[in-house]
Every structure is written in structure tokens, then in C-alpha cells.
Specification:
mainly alpha; 434 Repressor (Amino-terminal Domain); flat
């Protein structure tokens, strides 16, 4: 394994621990069923996990083994050719789905279903600009929903501190 790939693993495992355990390596080790010192060594770049552990990381946390080892997600490379607006929308969709935001996911599903129907109708009419407008509307709706949730969380925090 090259130094770049090893550095990529250290970065990837630290990002994963931050996402799933808030950066708490001890909690991550408990959740994964490995020794804390093992996780600490991974994060420090002292050694890599074996194949079985990489598979466990993949299965438990739905993380790409390729991404962990190389820092590149081959599943996302196909998006490089897409317009930035489309990539942004896909990234937001992934964020919503990986964070388990059920209400937002349901709204998103409804919007995507409507978009798919519109795309199909426009294919019949051969009007690709309308597809882009519809996609922009979906992105605006996702941003609006994210803003609403952020404001609601802020309001809840303010109410809690007043108590």
C-alpha cells in the first residue's frame, strides 16, 4: 500500500468515527466490537485493519472499502460529468438519506416521483430545459426544508436554555 493510500485510510477512518460516534474512538470501538487500542492505531496510521474488519466496516456503516483505502469513491465518479447543479442535488439527497430524516425523505420521494413523471412527459415533448428547471425546483425545496429544520432546532435549543 502506498503512503497516499495509507493517509487516505487514516483520513477516512477518522471521518467515519466522527460521523458515527461524534469522534469518540472508545464508543466506535465498542460499537464495532474491537479493542480501543486497535482503533487508536488505525487513526494514528500505525497499521490497517484486515480484510474481515474492512468488510465489517462496510456492512455496519455502509462505507465503501475503496473509499476507506484510497479516499476515492468509485461509485460517485460517474457524477463528475454531470452539471454542478445535478451533483449538488445528488449530494443533498445522499445527505438526507444517510441522516435518516424520514419526513424529508418522504417529501424528497414525492418530489423525485413528480420530477420523473415530468422528465418522461418532456422526453415526449423533447424539452430538456424544463427538466433542468424542475431539478432546480427540487434543489430549492431541499434547501428550504433544510433551513426549516435548522430553524426548528435553533428554536428548540433556545427554549431549552430558557428553562
Amino acid at each position: 500500500m502506498t503512503d497516499n493510500q495509507f493517509k487516505a485510510f487514516v483520513t477516512g477512518i477518522n471521518e467515519l468515527i466522527e460521523q458515527v460516534s461524534g469522534g469518540n474512538k472508545k464508543q466506535f470501538a465498542r460499537d464495532l466490537g474491537v479493542n480501543y487500542d486497535t482503533v487508536r492505531c488505525w487513526c494514528a496510521g500505525e497499521y490497517l485493519p484486515g480484510g474481515e474488519t474492512l468488510l465489517l466496516l462496510h456492512e455496519k456503516y455502509n462505507v465503501s472499502i475503496d473509499y476507506l483505502l484510497t479516499g476515492k469513491d468509485p461509485g460517485a465518479e460517474f457524477m463528475n460529468e454531470w452539471p454542478p447543479l445535478v451533483r449538488d442535488a445528488c449530494t443533498q439527497v445522499k445527505e438526507i438519506l444517510t441522516q435518516g430524516k424520514i419526513a424529508a425523505a418522504v417529501a424528497l420521494h414525492t418530489n423525485i416521483k413528480a420530477l420523473a413523471q415530468t422528465v418522461q412527459k418532456n422526453k415526449e415533448r423533447e424539452n430538456p430545459e424544463y427538466d433542468l428547471d424542475m431539478l432546480k425546483a427540487v434543489v430549492r425545496e431541499l434547501r428550504r426544508q433544510k433551513e426549516e429544520k435548522t430553524q426548528a432546532i435553533s428554536t428548540l435549543k433556545n427554549l431549552k436554555t430558557k428553562e
